[in-house]
Amino acid sequence: xxxxxxxxxxxxxxxxxxxxxxxxxxxxxxxxxxxxxxxxxxxxxxxxxxxxxxxxxxxxxxxxxxxxxxxxxxxxxxxxxxxxxxxxxxxxxxxxxxxxxxxxxxxxxxxxxxxxxxxxxxxxxxxxxxxxxxxxxxxxxxxxxxxxxxxxxxxxxxxxxxxxxxxxxxxxxxxxxxxxxxxxxxxxxxxxxxxxxxxxxxxxxxxxxxxxxxxxxxxxxxxxxxxxxxxxxxxxxxxxxxxxxxxxxxxxxxxxxxx
Length: 259
Prior knowledge:
Elements: E1 6-12, E2 16-23, E3 27-35, H1 42-53, E4 63-67, E5 79-80, H2 83-94, E6 100-104, E7 109-114, E8 120-125, H3 134-144, H4 148-153, H5 169-181, H6 186-208, E9 214-217, H7 224-234, E10 238-239, H8 247-258
Parallel strand pairs: 1-4, 4-5, 6-9, 9-10
Antiparallel strand pairs: 1-2, 2-3, 6-7, 7-8
């Protein structure tokens, strides 16, 4: 008798939609990331791509769980779970010994403390400001006229860091433009951009209380420069994973199976 169960987790964020399909709550068999979050067609596109990658159909899913900013607007979901619950569960899947999760998404930054047995034990979030988020990086990439992948790698070899003193994204943008006009070292400036995000994220984590190991999730975790800067600010190794942007969707798919 076939006891295979497929569950689907859809993480509908403010700027991206992430989907994961899991077999028996253990193995990822399909996944996707689509630009565009709540209020767009991206959640449906993400599900279609993930099911196609798994050679399955949406009707094969035992349960669909939605999480993220737009979870309550997705009518095809059988259930919803908070971002905190899903990120805690997904982080533990990717990093079994995780004790602190730092998640930086398109428009928010949060830190979560995890108990030894994997339960959420507290959280802290940024205020409603784009500084220290993926949106901040996008603005800086546009100013510098480079793509986000390139931005994440640049600055690693900077001999000195040019600090960004403005705490507001709009003012920081003007500050970077001013620095470029002065002809400053671009690597040093990018290193300063990365440190600016890391300082804000580290501050949120420190308010909560950092317990190692620390796992870095969300789209910004793909930036090598921010990861390095965050490690420096917290004075500890930062663990991450090439699937870290899918953390919330992974947790949603696992919770769909477990509950």
